[in-house]
Design brief:
320 residues, mainly alpha, globular, Bax_inhibitor_1-related, membrane, transmembrane helix
């Protein structure tokens, strides 16, 4: 008789599995001690493990994949050709934006200085040339013509974006506006004495310089005050109409004129800060596009001219 071995068959599972069955193999590298290593490159299904090139070959002739030196995983290259966070091209983009803004500011102030020089020259000519003053008084239609040119040019530059951004039409309109406005301002200034006009010019220059420096340095954001300033302009306009009617009827008061001129100078001083910060952009909520250099120069020029007119009115009322 044949005697069978009493030992169980198959032998016990060395990994603690059930008797009589092969052990259940988990994924390599987990679940039991002394596990075999992870699948090598070109493992099951032909897929590579993370950090390994596909099919057991180095891509692109043995070069490391994109990413950090050493080939530690495939990293999608960004639009600048380098990886974050220390990307010199990203920092360069911020610098380029600042350089564009600085060039825009230089262009605006260059145009503004040209406008102010033309205006100052016309004022000086009418102050020191008596024949020019007599000619204007005998031809009052020139004032109405200049007023019409100012109105049409301002509407075209302020309301028609394509016009003010298209050269040379924008420079032509701005030049016509500056000549017409300078002519009107020269005629108005010729009604005052030379010392009063020179005093008004000096005070206006100091005010504008101080406000410009303040607008560049302050942390207050005035660009959010556009609606409030517009309401103040409407109120000031109504106040001016009432004061003009009172003066025409013989009920004018010097105190009313001083209050009106003081409020006007204060309002357009705030407007100068507002328009300067719009031009600066950067940390402010609202800003003007770098393409709008004509519009920015026009805004600053109108603010400075209005400050000068109101300061001259205050000086004239005080002297009278």
């Amino acid at each position: 008789m044949t005697t069978w071995n009493s030992a169980p068959y198959p032998p016990p599972d060395p990994y603690g599995g059930q008797q009589g069955y092969p052990p259940q193999q988990p994924y390599p590298g987990a679940g039991y001690p002394n596990a075999p290593p992870a699948y090598p490159a070109g493992g099951p299904g032909g897929y590579a493990q993370p950090g390994q090139p596909p099919y057991g070959q180095q891509p692109y002739g043995g070069q490391q994949p994109y990413g950090q030196p050493g080939g530690g995983g495939y990293t999608q290259p960004d639009m600048y050709g380098t990886t974050y966070p220390d990307d010199p091209d990203v920092k360069g983009f911020e610098f380029n934006d600042k350089s564009i803004r600085r060039g825009f500011i230089r262009k605006v102030y260059s145009i503004l200085m040209g406008q102010l020089l033309i205006t100052a020259g016309m004022i000086a000519y009418f102050l020191y040339d008596k024949n020019a003053r007599v000619f204007v008084r005998n031809n009052s239609w020139l004032m109405f013509l200049a007023l019409a040119v100012v109105f049409v040019a301002m509407i075209a530059l302020a309301c028609c974006g394509e016009v003010r951004r298209k050269a040379p039409m924008n420079f032509i309109l701005l030049g016509l506006f500056t000549l017409a406005e300078g002519f009107m301002l020269a005629v108005i200034s010729s009604q005052y004495k030379v010392d009063a006009v020179l005093m008004a010019v000096g005070i206006t220059a100091v005010i504008c310089l101080a406000l410009t420096l303040f607008a560049f340095q302050t942390k207050w954001d005035f660009t959010m005050c556009g609606g409030f300033l517009f309401i103040c302009v409407i109120v000031l306009l109504i106040f001016g109409l009432v004061a003009s009617i009172m003066a025409a009827t013989g009920n004018g008061n010097r105190v009313v004129n001083l209050v009106y001129a003081s409020l006007g100078a204060l309002l357009f001083s705030i407007y100068l800060i507002y328009d300067t910060q719009l031009m600066m952009g950067g940390k402010h909520k609202y800003s003007i596009s770098p393409e709008e250099y004509i519009f920015a120069a026009l805004n600053l020029y109108v603010d400075i001219i209005n400050i000068f007119i109101y300061v001259l009115t205050i000086i004239g009322a005080a002297k009278d």
